[in-house]
């Protein structure tokens, strides 16, 4: 049995933005994806989580942003803690306090930073000493994208074949370091269809899903070459293409759905216009209407000014590559 920490343990993990998207599970329980993915961890958005296991509790006590979570969110964290308890060989409940430092309801991958921070704080509080790979495998069980947030900078989630072989690893830490991601917030309400539901519907009903699996692998290989060669325009082009290929799976699902709203389309067109006028920038979009613009430091001022005029300054957030998970 692991030696449990008598003190609370706190960890911080940052969100990540996928440049080659994860969209579909081969194994829903273990969260093994159909395809490998590649992301960039961001400095601006993060989650701080504190965990302490206590024998005198009758059940887990969980607070997210100072509030009791919904039953669904509670169960998700509770089940995740169960994985830690199983590895540690005890059944003690835990006190969990977690704070998301991401713009309210901006849909910026809160589950990625949340489960990476929970994996780190929870495993250490339980007395487990996990390697970065083991931590990535554990975080994956909470939310697939969380396995990449264990690492800073670029991270590749190798899809693997089973629980043991599906985890992320850091790569290209010295490449494209002047990359910036400008997060543009266009909607504040909760998304109508979660990533989990959306990807399942795509896998189950889109006739294009097999083509996605094939092209995604090729996109990933091409993106890795672009990063290795510090080739920003290829990097942006491939990231944008891969994001659009993911969103084509939502439009071709039955019933069809989309994460875009009218402002998403307006921003996509503006990015294209900027590009046409010689500003190197590209977009990527996750499971929500907000757009992330990929650019280099030299283009930030121009792009931020353009979008501040359209969306207001507070909806334009410039982020840089961020660090991996850390103990506080
Ligand atoms: P997102 O795009 O923000 O990742 P998801 O639907 O994938 O959206 O994940 C949001 C879910 O992640 C929430 O409904 C909640 O269950 C969980 N979550 C978010 N923040 C936390 C947190 N700090 N601690 C634990 N679970 C969290
Ligand atoms: C569009 O990791 O949130 O952001 O594994 O079901 O928790 P679950 O899904 P999640 O999905 C992320 C989807 C995405 C693409 C990506 O981050 O790769």
Mean pLDDT: 95
Rg, rounded, reads 19 Å
- Kindly state the number of beta strands: 13
Tell me, what is the CATH class of the largest domain? Alpha Beta
Helix and strand sequence: EEEEEHEHHEEEHHHHEEHEE
User: CATH topology of the largest domain, anyone?
Assistant: Ribosomal Protein S5, domain 2
Structural domain count: 2
Poorly predicted regions are none
Keywords: ATP-binding, Lipid biosynthesis, Lipid metabolism, Lyase, Nucleotide-binding
InterPro entries: GHMP_kinase_C_sf, Mev_decarb, Mev_diP_decarb, MVD-like_N, Mvd1_C, Ribosomal_Su5_D2-typ_SF, Ribsml_uS5_D2-typ_fold_subgr
Pfam family, one: MDD_C
Domain Diphosphomevalonate decarboxylase-like N-terminal: 13-168
Write the layout of secondary structure elements.
Layout: E1 9-20, E2 25-27, E3 32-33, E4 37-53, E5 61-64, H1 71-88, E6 94-101, H2 110-125, H3 132-142, E7 154-158, E8 167-170, E9 179-184, H4 195-205, H5 209-228, H6 232-251, H7 262-276, E10 282-285, E11 291-296, H8 300-311, E12 316-319, E13 326-327
Parallel strand pairs: 5-6
Antiparallel strand pairs: 1-4, 1-13, 2-3, 4-6, 4-7, 7-8, 9-11, 9-12, 10-11
This protein binds adenosine-5'-diphosphate and ligand DP6.
Residues 18, 21-22, 31, 37, 109, 111, 143-145, 195-196, 286-287 line the site of ligand DP6.
InterPro entries: GHMP_kinase_C_sf, Mev_decarb, Mev_diP_decarb, MVD-like_N, Mvd1_C, Ribosomal_Su5_D2-typ_SF, Ribsml_uS5_D2-typ_fold_subgr
Pfam families: MDD_C, MVD-like_N
Domain Diphosphomevalonate decarboxylase-like N-terminal: 13-168
